[in-house]
Design a protein that fits this description.
about 300 residues; alpha/beta; 8-stranded mixed β-sheet; 7-stranded mixed β-sheet; 10 helices; 17 strands; about 25% strand
Length: about 300
């Protein structure tokens, strides 16, 4: 799995930080999470083709997370996109995309398919990964997302041969979870498959005050991307505005036993992320504060690789 942070600022962008947006590459799909202002420019800066984006997931409908959508939608039309674009988000996303369809004078030659999220649960699944949602607590409805890699159990080839299954097409059927019959005997997949295997897992919080439910949602994930807009000295202000301070994000990471904590959504009141990073690292050492165009590579059973822009 590969993550590219396109924007890491909160409500007001700065010279070095754009509004929130992250591209996640997993399996055969390229997925955009949130789409703040200037997202399409950041996509180009990252060397990613916007035409390859398969889906967009929006955490909530505040401007700093959605104002890049009109530009993306129109640019894809100008580039000649024909395949559908799926956009997921909280209630109100249907109306928002309908407004974008009629904004200005242009023609969209592809289908925009919206999915309004009503409950926690699985939003998308294919054979090797799935995406789940969990409602958080912000000043408007906000959803966190979990991206889970699904690794197939190991196929026990020797065991299959011992059961009389000849190498060939029947192996593939069993690996796909289908029963086969050999000499009148039914062989079930669980007889020739090893135990379930853990895949890479990432959680993105969106904007939220600290939530106990996040601890369970992010338990044992490889990377927790959690907003940390302010430092703890202005925790009351943070809570009033529906945000988390760095210290509380670190507590969540520690309790959830995550491998790596990545903080984001920095307030423009700070000229550097260092105060927030220092605050978090006193509780959870394996913490970084995201920067625009930072790339994170996550492979199973390997340390998380973080590459900062030059």
């Amino acid at each position: 799995m590969e993550l590219t942070f396109l924007g890491t600022a909160s409500a007001i962008p700065t010279r070095s930080r754009n509004h929130t947006s992250i591209i996640i590459k997993i399996s055969n799909r390229l997925i955009l999470f949130d789409c703040g202002e200037a997202t399409q420019k950041q996509i180009m800066e990252a060397g990613i083709s916007p035409m390859k984006i398969d889906d967009i997931y929006i955490t909530h409908l505040h401007g700093d997370h959605i104002l890049g959508l009109p530009g993306i939608v129109q640019s894809l039309a100008f580039r000649g996109r024909t395949r559908p674009l799926h956009i997921y988000g909280p209630r109100g996303i249907n109306e928002l995309i309908d407004h974008i369809r009629h904004m200005g004078f242009y023609t969209i030659g592809y289908e925009l398919i919206t999915h309004e999220i009503e409950d926690d649960g699985i939003l998308y699944q294919q054979n090797d990964f799935r995406i789940l949602s969990r409602k958080m607590k912000h000043t408007v409805v906000d959803y966190a997302y979990k991206i889970e890699q699904l690794r197939q159990p190991k196929f026990l080839r020797q065991k299959a041969i011992e059961l009389g299954i000849p190498p060939g097409p029947l192996f593939g059927k069993l690996q796909a979870g289908k029963e086969v019959t050999v000499d009148g005997k039914i062989i079930k997949p669980e007889q020739v498959l090893g135990p379930p295997r853990e895949g890479v897992k990432v959680v993105f919080s969106g904007d939220t005050i600290p939530q106990e439910s996040m601890i369970e949602f992010a338990e044992n994930v490889d990377v927790l991307i959690h907003e940390a807009t302010f430092t703890k000295d202005i925790k009351e202000k943070a809570f009033e505005n529906g945000h988390t301070v760095a210290e509380d994000a670190a507590v969540i990471a520690k309790k959830a036993n995550v491998e790596q904590l990545i903080l984001t959504h920095l307030s423009n009141r700070y000229t550097s992320s260092k105060p927030l990073l220092d605050e978090a690292k006193t509780i959870f050492e394996n913490t970084v504060y995201a920067e625009d165009l930072m790339v994170v590579i996550i492979e199973n059973k390997k340390p998380v690789q973080i590459n900062f822009k030059k």
